[in-house]
Amino acid sequence: MPNPRLLFRRRLALPQFRRPASKPGDPRIFGFNAERDLIISEVVGRVLSEIGGSSQTLMLALNETAHHEIRRLEAQRDEESAVHLPRWHRIMRRVGSMDEGKLKQTLREELDRMSRDVAGNFDARVYDFALKLVRPTVVAAMHPRSIVSRERNRAALDLVMRCEGEVDAVQALAKKGTLVFVPTHSSNLDSLAVGEQLSRRGLPPAVYGAGKNLFSNPIVSFFMHNLGAYRVDRRVKASLYKSVLKAYACVLLERGYHMLFFPGGTRSRSGLVENRLKLGLAGTAAEAYARGLMRGRARRIFFVPITINYEIVLEAETLIEDFLKERGKTRYIIEDDEFSQIDRWFSFFGQLRDHDAGCVLRIGTPIDPFGNLVNGKGESLAPDGRIIDPAEYVRSGGEAMLDSERDAAYTRELGDRIIEAYKKNTVVMATQLVAHVFYRALVIQTAGLDLFARMRCRGEVRLSRVEVLDQLERCRSELLQLESEGSTVLGTSVREAPPEAILQRALDAWRYHARAVIREEADELIVEDPPLLLFYHHRIVTHAERLATSEPERDAAIEMARIWRDA
Fold first, then answer.
1. Domain edge (last residue) among 425, 444, 464
2. Chain CA centroid to CA 212, Å
3. Does 119 map to a domain?
4. CA-based torsion, 274, 280, 281, 285: positive or negative
5. Residue 472, class by beta-carbon neighbours within 10 Å (0-12 exposed, 13-18 middle, 19+ buried)?
6. Residues in Cβ contact with 93 at an 8 Å cutoff, skipping those fewer than 6 apart
7. pLDDT tens digit string along 461-509?
8. Which of 185, 307, 394, 515 could bridge 290 with an S-S bond, Cβ 3.0-4.6 Å?
9. What span, in angstroms and rounded, lies between the C-alpha atoms of 84 and 95?
10. Residue 13 clears pLDDT 90, i.e. is over it
11. What are 22-43's pLDDT values in tens digits?
12. DSSP string, 397-408
């Protein structure tokens, strides 16, 4: 079989790239490369200014950075270490004898190096090529039988992927200000899904942060490098690097670049919808807005919450195993999952050829940087519906001011609104509803066992098909009530299909996974993979108590919800 890496490189040489770098009417990001050096220069200058000009503050900043970088690079022992470790050892030896000028020069050089490593790139020709490539790629993942023609691809994608919610409002806001898309994150296919749907809905492309580890995949790296992705190295612990990331995001927002980032920080390993967010980048929005007002630019910034909802998740097996192994610890980089292994990536497409999966992107009501909902006209709304002026949030004595403590408080409010939006706009799919019914039965039938003992109960829990269908109908009835209250959204199959069809759709979807999730035996259904049931059930665990109709079910719901509250 030909090497996929070589094939990909050859295809890149095809005469696809004849588009000029930018032209009138192009989105803001198309001019990024012309501003790249100016952006980097502004980031470096801003971080240096924040450090201050005294020898002591400069020395502390440089010393702290050298300490963390030496520790990191010595542990890595890779090509990066061989290149950069000697330089940091030299800096550490000499920092105590440097005068103020040399300290500032050395810090400037390191800030420039960090900023250039972070800063993205944008090639309009690659963007055009990517738009042509993304649709068949997503179709290959979700509807392989339809890879025949552009028209068939488009029809197939309409069947298996859709974008719903406040689409019209966001389209209008794109013309009035800067958008910050904040999706949930459960798969590395998320970026493809969001990018394709934003393009199809006439929404502008956005710059976005991506973990540096993802650049090891040659295909993903090529597109990320040329489509505005800025690299985030989560291994770097130095405060200086975090300041660079924050300043870079702030400068981009000030200059009107639409942005996308995953506030969960990394893919949800448990399958839970994010209920705790990393808001460092979100916190730059209030500052960017204040700085704009100080310069006489009143350009608004709007956060757009998006839930990405899959019938099946590419990396589910690895993610849930990692969650179970690392429960109670923090692990940000997963090196060995299905996505990072290119052979597994191609295998994923092959294994799906007999199955149609589904993906729904649900756009919630936009929010301003201070946690207020925003209408389609771009007006911020108080809780009672009054129109309010967001500029008042950053003014003191009638003048816009910078205040990091004030901005942090507003950002916490923003985070709460985003989490609320995620809950309301999570779309319940067949796999999640069926998983909930089976996992709840597992909890009831294994009372007294802890989470980890329960994960070893393969083949021990059985339900009759009649019982499963009855529970599906009861759960669906309660979910319909929750949907009418605005607390969740149901996928089409869950809302309209009979229980038999919902069950069969889930069983068909799970055939993608290497291990059987549920085994059918005559009129009984047997739990074979508790971890995957846990993963898919977690998507609707917040509704577990509402879905319970008996005392054992309510006790199980309380126990299941405990994981979500502690996560």
1. 425
2. 15
3. no
4. positive
5. buried
6. none
7. 999 999 999 999 999 999 999 999 999 999 999 999 999 999 999 999 8
8. 394
9. 16
10. no
11. 565 678 888 888 999 999 999 9
12. TTEE---HHHHH
pLDDT digits (tens, 9 = 90+) for 412-432: 999 999 999 999 999 999 999
| Residue 403 shares a structural domain with residue 421 | yes
Nearest to 273 by CA among 418, 466, 453: 418
The pTM score is 0.86
For residues 133 and 175, membership in a common domain is answered with: yes
SS3 347: helix
Write out the E strands in 246-393: 259-260, 300-310, 359-363, 373-374, 380-381, 387-388
- H-assigned helices in 13-78: 32-51, 55-76
Looking at the structure, tell me whether residues 411 and 459 fall in a common domain: no
pLDDT of 475 reads 97
Is residue 490 located within the same domain as residue 418? no
Share of the chain above pLDDT 70, in %: 84
Assigned token pair, 130 = 């990517």
157 and 199 fall within a common domain: yes
Write the burial class of residue 453 (CB in 10 Å: 0-12 exposed, 13-18 middle, 19+ buried): exposed
Residue range(s) defining the domain that contains residue 400: 124-206+258-328+347-425
Tell me which of 410, 425, 440 is where a domain ends.
Answer: 425
Give phi and psi for 484, each to the nearest 5.
-65, -25
- Total domains, the chain: 2
In a domain, 71, yes or no: no
Residues 137/146, Cβ–Cβ less than 8 Å:
no
399: tokens are: 């003048």
Same-domain pairing of 269 and 354: yes
| In a shared domain, residues 279 and 359 | yes
Label residue 350 exposed, middle or buried (CB < 10 Å: 0-12, 13-18, 19+).
exposed
In the sheet where 524-527 sits, what is the strand order? 462-464, 524-527, 518-521
Give per-residue burial for 28-46: e unless 16+ CB within 10 Å, then b: bbbbbbeebeebbebbbeb
